[in-house]
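hey so u asked for the seq, here:
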Amino acid sequence: WRKWGGVNVITGDNETFLFKFDNSVARDLVLINGPWEVWGAYLVLRCWEEGMSLSKDSFSSIPIWVKLANVPSELWTKSGLSYVASALGVPLCMDAATTTGNRLSFARVCIEMKASSNFLTSYKVRRRNKTLVDVMVQYAWKPSPYSVCKVFDHSSKQCHFVVRQDGTAKQGGRRGAWFACHRSRCGFCW
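ran it, structure tokens below
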């Protein structure tokens, strides 16, 4: 990342980190060119927003990069790809090659997906002429949600909803969900 500008790493609680970039261009390049993996661990990256929780307890949804293949040519626009990607979750941004149309074999889109998602490998999209086409999906990383409360990267030891052996529920609850970053000036976000 340093090739795009300086970055400071600030450690937080519970395996969270804050990356502070010298400039917004470097930050945007890191966000757009993901996903990033460090020693086999997938980094979930978000733009910081005021009031944002740095706790991993709120991982009921996370941004995941997907490749969408067999997208009809008439849907290869910003609004068309948003329509196609919205079947999986909330579209956040596209990579540069998808945005500029320099690669038409697949669209690479970052999508906010819930832990309760089915992580489809294909789904049908209705074209303008009312016919259906199968869109194929490949995930850069496919997380496994904890089955009780549907939170990513979570175990029964951390779950606030799991019932203890003595029959009482743990106290506390999940914090608010992550926020989507919508930077309209960068040209990649919806």
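The CA atoms of residues 11 and 126 lie 46 Å apart. Residues 2-144+176-186 form one domain.
lmk if thats what u needed
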